[in-house]
Automatic annotation (TrEMBL):
<dbReference type="InterPro" id="IPR006847">
    <property type="entry name" value="IF2_N"/>
</dbReference>
<keyword id="KW-0396">Initiation factor</keyword>
<feature type="domain" description="Tr-type G">
    <location>
        <begin position="383"/>
        <end position="552"/>
    </location>
</feature>
<dbReference type="InterPro" id="IPR009000">
    <property type="entry name" value="Transl_B-barrel_sf"/>
</dbReference>
<feature type="region of interest" description="Disordered">
    <location>
        <begin position="76"/>
        <end position="105"/>
    </location>
</feature>
<dbReference type="InterPro" id="IPR023115">
    <property type="entry name" value="TIF_IF2_dom3"/>
</dbReference>
<dbReference type="InterPro" id="IPR027417">
    <property type="entry name" value="P-loop_NTPase"/>
</dbReference>
<feature type="compositionally biased region" description="Basic residues">
    <location>
        <begin position="276"/>
        <end position="290"/>
    </location>
</feature>
<dbReference type="Pfam" id="PF04760">
    <property type="entry name" value="IF2_N"/>
</dbReference>
<feature type="binding site">
    <location>
        <begin position="492"/>
        <end position="495"/>
    </location>
    <ligand>
        <name>GTP</name>
    </ligand>
</feature>
<feature type="region of interest" description="Disordered">
    <location>
        <begin position="184"/>
        <end position="203"/>
    </location>
</feature>
<dbReference type="InterPro" id="IPR015760">
    <property type="entry name" value="TIF_IF2"/>
</dbReference>
<protein>
    <recommendedName>
        <fullName>Translation initiation factor IF-2</fullName>
    </recommendedName>
</protein>
<keyword id="KW-0648">Protein biosynthesis</keyword>
<feature type="region of interest" description="Disordered">
    <location>
        <begin position="262"/>
        <end position="292"/>
    </location>
</feature>
<comment type="function">
    <text>One of the essential components for the initiation of protein synthesis. Protects formylmethionyl-tRNA from spontaneous hydrolysis and promotes its binding to the 30S ribosomal subunits. Also involved in the hydrolysis of GTP during the formation of the 70S ribosomal complex.</text>
</comment>
<dbReference type="InterPro" id="IPR000178">
    <property type="entry name" value="TF_IF2_bacterial-like"/>
</dbReference>
Amino acid sequence: MDKVKIQEIADEAGLSNADLLDKAKELGFDVKAANSTISMENAGILVDYAISGTLPKGFKKPGSKAKITVVKKKEETVEKKVSTPSDESETVAKPAAETTVDTSKVTIEEKVEEVAPDSTEKPAVKKVKKRKGISVVSKKTETEAPATIEESEDKPQKKTLSRGGIKIVRKAKPAPVRAATKISMDEQTPYVSKKKPKKVAEARDSGTKIDIFNHDSMSGDIDSGFGEEEVVLLDFSDKNIYEDMMRQEQKRKEEAKKRELAGVGTGKGKQAFRPQQKRSLKRGGKRKKYEKAESTEVVTSVEIPENVRVYEFAEKVNRSVGEVIGVLFALGMMVTKNDFLSKDEIEILAEEFEVEVTTVNPLDELEIAEDHDAEEDEANLEERPPVITIMGHVDHGKTSLLDRIRTSKVADKEAGGITQHVGAYQVEKNGKKITFVDTPGHEAFTEMRSRGAQATDIVIIVVAADDGVMPQTKEAISHTKAAGVPLIVAINKMDKESANPDNVKAQLSEIGVMAADWGGEYEFVPVSAHTGMGIDDLLETILLQAEVMELKANPNRKAKAVVVESSLEKGFGPVANVIIKNGTLHVGDNVIVGKTYGRIKAIKLDDGSNAKEIGPSTPAAIVGLNEVPGAGDELIVMDTDKEVRELAEKRAEYDRAKALSKSTKASLDDLSALIAEGQLKSLPVIIKADVQGSLEAIKGSLEKLRNEEVKVNIIHEGVGGVTESDLTLADASEHSVVLGFNVRPTGAVKKKAKELGIEIRTYTIIYDLLDDVKALLGGLMSPVISEEVTGQADVRETFVVGKVGTIAGCKVSDGVITRNSKARLIRDGVVIYESKIASLKRFNEDAKEVKNGYECGIMLENFNDIKEGDVIETFKDVEEQVTL
Ligand SMILES: Nc1nc2c(ncn2[C@@H]2O[C@H](COP(=O)(O)OP(=O)(O)OP(=O)(O)O)[C@@H](O)[C@H]2O)c(=O)[nH]1
């Protein structure tokens, strides 16, 4: 132990092997070649001798008697005579706890002095070494006394370093420099403590001082703390190292100052880590690593996009991804570096890292530089038609009313006009146009609003006079009010005998919609979609309201429009039904619509005619986009096709990245796993069904579904399609699933579900639905069994043992061969037999497993025809739960 080869010393000292070997021989060391070893002590002597020609006082060549004194305790010396200075004969200094030299006093300053290149004093080597938490201070004394150790702080300044200033300990690993570096023990501690914090602390307390010359002999007692790892050969006179060190020191000081000024603490843990920053000299990679950590600047405020991934956040706040994940993990949130952070998570992280976080909409970046919503000069504005959406409870006559208004318009026009479905249409009343959005219901309305693309100016709430206010009436009113859009109430079915408009007024007044003739602020218009009664009144009321609103737009600018519907039409490709919000759209314009783009090839109006250009509030179907855009997407005209293409690509890329991110909501696969692990105690579901009957049936059955661990928790149920509010609800409850029966989510809802990471499962057969949920809850799905190869062994020779059978002498070539595992015999790539490992032996001993690279004896169950060159492969079956 603790011997070092001549060639290693030569390497470190920068001498040739031959030279060093000669010198070693001169000193009488027992060496023959470069790979001969000598003790660490002798190595030190040799290097000094080779470099400076000096020998420690009292050095005697082997054969002569040496007298070595060891300080065991302060003032307690033990003398021991040895016949030779060979490794074994040297004196052991046990690192007693009470040893008193406080090595922490070996400070950086002292060391720097020692290394001063102009030092002319006799060379001496000062060695500071920590082994298993023991500080070892060694030196060559200038006294005549045998190599005796005194308290290092007594005369440390007097020690000069040889040109090499070399400290040799060991070389096996390029371990962090712990010895003979210009590090005060205090500074060294955090570094060392990475490995042996406790022992280092002890060492500091004990401050043991031991002659390095006794190193070997003492190693028997105290070695192995750092193993055989250190060879530290530092030339302190090296100007570059010194300067480098000073530079780093300076840099650190500056950074520390900066931090202080910033006044930002990084938490206690960090503070405790700081002493590292003072570390002066480290070698190679280690030093680099710490420099990196040290250059970390504390970020105090940062602007991040609303949708930020873990690694992006880490970058922004100048933290490692690990730190970010760690903080969330500690709070039970599992994220990977590519996951998007939720608002809550961002908040937590901001607090933890003491960073002020401002979230910005990432799409702002992707918005068009030209501000379409900028204040228009009044002079450029012209009156534009109002855009109307009709909403109301089911069967109260929305479609009938729209049809009636449209027919009246068509009738007004010349006969034979073929109407084109463009998602909206225009009628004319008193020479003024009114645009009606063709898709009644608040889904489309809300959809558009949720995308910030409000196209509607006025909402007509249809209430059947014979039915009164119903749930969807209320919902529609809430949506309208939330959007800040004025509403007009159309009391429909006035032709019916049972019509009771006062009842409608009374009911609506209860929910804050008071009729104007009752002293309120809302216009109520009695109509009949069947007879056409009140339609004119309704249109006039709309125009009046529009006038009050002073709806205006600038037709002389590039167009901005909103998509109300879109589809893929045979012969036309993607078609978007749009309503122009501002400006004028021309055939040939380059447009971006959400993530799609293109050049307008054709504009079709609601009367079936083609137009070259259309102005504000005009509905039309446009052709020329590369893909089908989404309802609610905004169309914007840009100057060049390059611009629109690039922006569309950026937006698409953004969406892709977002979709790729792991959702915060669980898919059914994840749920299955969570249930299997017993982590999920109840399965929150939202049920939507086509009719009340099936809803009740499903609800009843689901409520009965439960086992000991898990039950279904119906958080919401309803008749009708899956809506955005269902998704909002699902989004709010962890691990929820939306189950639909005989309903299909619309494109937009589907899209949102994808965005939110919510799984919508739809069924047409109740039993399928129940089966899925049952399987989910009970983990009853039959598992898929796949195979995993665990090891392979090459048959080197075979032994036939009497009654036992054939034993294959093998060498494991891959993995691990385990006793009793399933195995197959492969000959020339063909599977000959499949059974299991009946016996596995290593050196005649039964073995449980034999690892790659080792030899073993294998017997296969019921198979003896094993030949040299065969391969035995072991494998196991892996069960995988089937996912839904
Ligand atoms: N008597 C009478 N019946 C009407 C009137 N308006 C609509 N209806 C009838 O009411 C029923 C529903 O009319 P729709 O126009 O389909 O009602 P809706 O609100 O569009 O219904 P959904 O599209 O299902 O939401 C139909 O049978 C219509 O014929 C009306 O003014 N008078």
